[in-house]
Write a structure and sequence with these properties.
The chain has 86 residues and is mainly beta. The chain has one domain (3-76): Jelly Rolls (Sandwich), CATH 2.60.120. It contains one helix and eight strands. It has one helix at residues 78-83, and strands at residues 3-9, 14-18, 23-30, 32-37, 43-46, 50-53, 59-63, 67-74. The strands form two sheets. It has a four-stranded antiparallel beta sheet with strand order 1-8-3-6, with no helix packed on it. The longest helix is centred in the last third of the chain and has 6 residues, at 78-83.
Length: 86
């Protein structure tokens, strides 16, 4: 089962490098994010674009503008469900 989350990130906010066993797809609904991926070139994703992260892939980034993103995870992120009170 997949799960999606919507997030707002302020311009210049740093997304710390991390990894998880979930596949992740991030769709940028507004703004722009530069993603840094271990062992790969940085990827800038702007409004209407998306990035895919493999399970256990180390990734992070920086918001280049105020950004709204929608993340989908498979399998569902149980830790996020708990944070959201589900």
């Amino acid at each position: 089962m997949a799960r999606r989350f919507r997030s707002r990130t302020a311009k210049d906010a740093v997304l710390a490098p991390h990894s998880h066993h979930h596949e992740q797809i991030t769709y940028v609904a507004e703004g722009a994010i530069r993603f840094d991926r271990e062992g790969q070139e940085s990827l800038t994703v702007r409004k209407g674009g998306f990035a895919v992260f493999a399970p256990n892939e180390v990734h992070g980034g920086t918001a280049l503008e105020d950004t709204i993103a929608i993340d989908a995870f498979a399998p569902a992120r149980e830790d996020f469900k708990k944070e959201m009170g589900e």
